[in-house]
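Design request, tokens follow.
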């Protein structure tokens, strides 16, 4: 697979999420974040500033999911225990 596929596969193993290679879907079960297409982050960011932050992070990586985006989600969307 591509580098992106390898990275996402490792995320799934580490965090127990779901990864669908066909549509590149990644789910973090311990975070409260709606399933949202990367290209929709900026629009959603008009209502929730966390998505605006994610849109900015993604713009720096040519819209490819990456460790910085993952760490942001884990920190800012985590379900409070």
């Amino acid at each position: 697979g591509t580098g992106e596929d390898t990275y996402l596969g490792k995320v799934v193993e580490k965090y127990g999420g779901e990864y669908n290679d066909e549509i590149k879907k990644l789910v973090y079960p311990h975070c409260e974040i709606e399933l949202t297409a990367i290209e929709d982050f900026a629009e959603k960011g008009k209502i929730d500033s966390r998505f605006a932050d994610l849109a900015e992070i993604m713009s720096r990586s040519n819209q490819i999911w990456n460790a910085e985006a993952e760490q942001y989600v884990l920190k800012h969307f985590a379900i409070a225990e």
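Comment from the thread starter after seeing the answer: thanks! Strands lie at 18-20, 25-27.
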